Structure prediction request, 255 residues.
Amino acid sequence: MARGRDRVRGPLDAADVIAEGVRGVPAAEVPGRLCAVAVELLPVTGASVSLRGNGMPVRMGASDAVAARLAEIQATLGDGPSMYAAEAGAPVLASDLTAGRDARRWPVFAQQAAEAGVRAVYSVPLGDDAVCVGTLDLYGDAPHELSGRELHTARLMAGVMTLALMSLPLDENDENDAAYKADVTGGGVGEASWLRAVAAEQDEVYQAIGMIMAQLGVGADEALALLRAHAFAESRTALDVAHEVITHRKRFDRD
Prediction:
């Protein structure tokens, strides 16, 4: 079977491939499946999608383990193309992380991306001109500058991803999911059972930040920065370190 991008001659062709890709897919698997479709449609090797959390992005799906890892690296560092795209509400295209401006802009992330076999990252915001709710992040194993048509397809994927994330089935019995979805989207929407596992992970980060604040007498921003710094120093994710903090296996003390 031809790859999706071999069939794409315009927006309608891309829309057909996207529709085929998610037809019959269980709701909870839609974000990950759309990431896989993005890889079919574009000259990239991986894709991930993250929603903006309160302080840290929250990964909702990925096409493969490398894409998931790159999303975690950016969340742990608090730096990288996705962070800038979410803040600016505009695409950030790092077409060559091995040299030049892109490598200098995010030196630590660029080095870790290269170690993971990634040479280019394209981050496209989810949402509209008024509100950015997250990013669709596309990863390539070779330097490449997206063409106008490719960027248009990436924007189309981001638009479909936004609608999918905001339209997944709701669970009317879980108040915690309602509060979490309102937090990451900035709106007062109903409960979403598909967010339960992700909400639990994000809660661990919030709990760890609170415990670090209490242990050191610092503010939330400094506590998050310390959590990220320790995760980076130990070559781990911020979520891993947060779990150790809340299970009392790690304590932050002043030297």
Q: What stands out?
A: The chain has two domains: 4-167, 175-246. The beta strands are 46-51, 58-62, 92-94, 120-127, 132-140. Residues 170-195 have pLDDT under 50 and may be disordered.
